[in-house]
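INTERNAL TRANSFER SHEET
From: sequence group
To: structure group
Subject: Aminotransferase class V-fold PLP-dependent enzyme

Please process the attached sequence and return the structure record in the designated field. Keep the field labels unchanged so the import script can parse them.
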Amino acid sequence: MKPHSNRLSDEIRARFAHVDTCPFSGPRIFFENAGGALTLKSVVETSAKFAAIPDNQGRDNPASAALVKVITDAKADMALFFNADSGRFFVGESGTELLFRLIRTAIMGPANRGAVIGSTVEHPASRSAAQHWAQQAGVEYLSVPHDDATGQVTASAYRDVMREDVTVATILHTSPVTGIANDVAAIARAIRAEAPDAFIIVDGIQHASHGQVDIAAYDIDGYVVSPYKMFSRHGYGVAWASDRLTALKIETLAGGPQGNWEMGTRDTGAYATFSDVVHYLDWLGGEVSDKTDTRSRIIAAGASIHAHEKALTDALLYGLGNLPGLTSLPGVTILGGAENEDREGLVCFAVDRLPADRIVANLNDNGIRTHIRRADHYSGNVLTPLGLDAAVRVSLCHYNTLAEVRALLLAMQEMTLPIVSDQ
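Return from structure group:
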């Protein structure tokens, strides 16, 4: 598939709030999508609508019945987006909170507790949870090393560390530092080949806005996303839990409905704004394909998003016309490798003689929003083995354009001219 046409890009951008202007600083290009994507205008409208409704769910009145229907419809939309024909969807405080909860349940719930396995590439949302609750349960945590050069962890790497006593495994779908995706289905197969009954929990927070999610193809037990990173809003996370994970002794109100993951009255607006995201992808899939059913349109939208973002990252890496790309910069390091085919809408880089904080500040001065990743508790697992204290993350989404990439490359060229002239 080709990148989006100018007409379609304009229509896409028209559906997002603050697409080219910050309400605080004025005109800007937004390349900080991994920190939180732009918000659909429909999500803003829906949030305001439901924030004004005083009624709760579960009451005997028309407003309450309408709220329950919105939640029921949203869970059906979630099932379409995630392609899940079983299990349960629910919302929580955030993606991180939900990962902690699923992982805690998987580790502490079974009567016979065994080892826990995860990889060094994981975000602390899953790795910290797994290590903490493994310690609380008194079981061993097995650490799978990722490949520093590719920024990935492979099924083979899991296989080398796997043991038959593993009862819980965690997988990162896509790294928010490198932007490189991992093969969830292959890793899950490697885990189940050794420990077929293990509970497998996946962090899909970075992946969700860049490609399709297909729970039916993964053979897993939990999947978590943060909707503010996929065109919705802050304030909630979405989790899917398999039936067998739900059958464990989950934390719930005594005497309440069996298998109920939700704590207290949920925000109907959270569910409704996730439906807005699904409806948007349904629209986009109809624009780029002749499909008529929603799931097929979601698949088509995901393929189109991937193709457009690849065109953007290729331009960022290799240049546009006579304008050189990041790979032409002197002393540049591209995290995950420039030629990595599993890249999803993100390029993270460092330049030997130009500190990352100076690059980010300079780009900001040019109206281009990026982000610095430091070797801290969030990113040190990836940066420290590469000998980097910090790197610049340029994270794109399908509403970004080649013209915006060109503006960044021009700014980088101006910044690095003194380095080039010294050589």
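Handover comment: The mean pLDDT is 95. The first helix runs from residue 6 to 14.
Transfer complete.
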